[in-house]
Design a protein that fits this description.
single chain, 374 residues, 2 domains, 71% helix, transmembrane helix, EpsG-like, transmembrane, EpsG family protein
Length: 374
C-alpha cells in the first residue's frame, strides 16, 4: 500500500481534527488560528521542497538560466500584447526575475510563489467559508499537490481568480478585470474565468441546475468544444514539461473517479440549493461558479487537458461551496455530510498516493525538503 510522506499525512490528520472542531463547536464565531497553522505548514512543505512536483526540474533550470537572460522590454511587450517571442506568461517570468535579482536558491522563488498561492486561497477560505479548515481538507486532494506543488504557473493564475471573487461580491468591475489580467499573466487558462463576473448573477433553481448538468453530460460525446478549437488552442495549455500530463494520464486511468466527484458535487448542489441559498451570504454567486465548472467538465470530458486545466479555475471554488452547504444543514444531517466528505477525502488520500504519489515525489522515499535535508 502506497502512502504519502509522514509530513503530509500528519498535516492531513491535523486538518481533519480542526474540521471536526469546527462542525461540532458550540461557538458560532470561527477562529482564524487553525487555518493559519495549516497555512504555515503547507507553505513550509511546499515552499522548501526539493525536486518535488511534476514540473520542478524544468522550472528550476529556467529560473537560473533562461529567465535571467530575458530583457524586461520583452516582458513589457508581452504584457501590452505586442509582438513577442516569449513563450511563457510575462507575470510568471517577472516574479521569477525579481526574486532572482535578490539572490538565493530556487527555493526562494518556490517559497514566494506558495506564500501567494496558498496564502490567498486559505485567506479566502477564512473569509468566505463557514468551515475554513474543512475547506482546506477538501482542497488538499488533488489541488494542493498537483497545482501548488506541481504546476506553479496555473496555481498562481487560479489563485488570482479566487482573489477576484472578492471584487465579484463587491461588484467592482475595474478591480475584477485587473485581477483577471494579472491571473492571465500567470497562466493563459485564467481567461476562461472572465465571464464569472456576470454569470454569478444568473438565478438558478435546483431543477435548472439539474437540467444544465444533464444537458452537459449529453453534449459530452459530441465534442462541441471543437467549435472553439482556435480560441482554446491559443491558450497554449500544454506545460513546459510532460509532468503535469503524467498526473492527468494516471488519473484518467481511474477516471470514472473524477466523474464520481463531479456527480457527487452535482447532487449536493441540487439537493441543498434552497437551504444554502437562504443561510449563506453570497452562496448563489459561488454556486453558479461551481455549476459552470461541473458543466464545463462534462462538456470537455473527452479531452483530459481541457477537462482539467480549463475547468480547474471554476472547480477550485468547490472547497468553499461544499463546506458552506454542510454549514447550512442542521443536526445529524450536517454531521453525516461532514463525516461523509472526510471519509471520502481519506479514500482520496489512498487513490492519490497510489496513482500520483510516486510520480510527484510525495512518498516517504521520494519527498525531500531543504528544512531537514542537509
Amino acid at each position: 500500500m502506497t502512502i504519502l510522506h509522514p509530513a503530509f499525512t500528519i498535516l492531513f490528520a491535523i486538518m481533519i481534527m480542526f474540521s471536526f472542531n469546527e462542525v461540532y463547536r458550540d461557538q458560532p464565531k470561527k477562529s482564524a488560528l487553525p487555518i493559519w497553522i495549516i497555512a504555515v505548514i503547507m507553505i513550509a512543505l511546499t515552499g522548501f521542497r526539493d525536486y518535488v512536483g511534476a514540473d520542478y526540474p524544468v522550472y528550476k533550470s529556467m529560473y537560473a538560466i533562461y529567465f535571467p537572460s530575458l530583457d524586461f522590454s520583452q516582458l513589457v511587450d508581452k504584457m501590452l500584447f505586442r509582438q513577442s517571442n516569449l513563450d511563457i506568461e510575462w507575470m510568471y517570468v517577472m516574479l521569477n526575475k525579481f526574486v532572482f535579482m535578490f539572490g538565493g536558491p530556487f527555493q526562494t522563488f518556490t517559497l514566494v510563489s506558495v506564500c501567494i498561492s496558498i496564502g490567498i486561497k486559505l485567506w479566502t477560505y477564512q473569509k468566505d467559508s463557514a468551515y475554513p479548515a474543512f475547506s482546506a481538507v477538501l482542497f488538499f486532494f488533488p489541488s494542493f499537490f498537483i497545482a501548488d506543488n506541481g504546476h506553479m504557473r496555473q496555481a498562481l493564475g487560479m489563485t488570482m481568480c479566487i482573489l477576484s471573487y472578492q471584487f465579484i461580491k463587491e461588484r467592482k468591475l475595474i478591480w475584477y478585470l485587473l485581477t483577471i489580467y494579472i491571473a492571465y499573466g500567470f497562466h493563459k487558462s485564467a481567461i476562461i474565468f472572465l465571464p464569472a463576473y456576470w454569470l454569478v448573477l444568473v438565478p438558478l433553481t435546483s431543477a435548472q441546475i439539474f437540467y444544465l448538468i444533464v444537458t452537459s453530460i449529453i453534449l459530452s460525446p459530441f465534442h462541441v468544444y471543437d467549435l472553439f478549437g482556435g480560441f482554446l488552442g491559443s491558450l497554449n495549455l500544454q506545460d513546459v514539461s510532460n509532468g503535469y500530463n503524467g498526473y492527468i494520464d494516471s488519473e484518467d486511468k481511474a477516471s470514472s473517479f473524477m466523474d464520481g466527484v463531479m456527480i457527487l458535487n452535482s447532487f449536493v448542489l441540487i439537493a441543498y440549493n434552497k437551504q444554502a441559498s437562504s443561510k449563506i451570504w453570497y452562496y448563489e454567486y459561488m454556486r453558479n461558479i461551481i455549476v459552470v465548472g461541473v458543466c464545463l467538465y462534462f462538456i470537455f470530458r473527452d479531452n483530459p487537458v481541457f477537462s482539467t486545466r480549463l475547468v480547474g479555475v471554476y472547480i477550485s471554488f468547490s472547497p468553499i461551496v461544499i463546506a458552506n452547504v454542510v454549514a447550512s444543514l442542521e443536526g445529524n444531517k450536517k454531521r453525516f455530510w461532514h463525516l461523509f466528505f472526510v471519509a471520502f477525502m481519506v479514500f482520496y488520500y489512498f487513490v492519490f498516493a497510489n496513482f500520483q504519489g510516486a510520480k510527484g515525489r510525495f512518498t516517504p522515499d521520494t519527498y525531500h525538503n531543504v528544512l531537514w535535508d542537509f
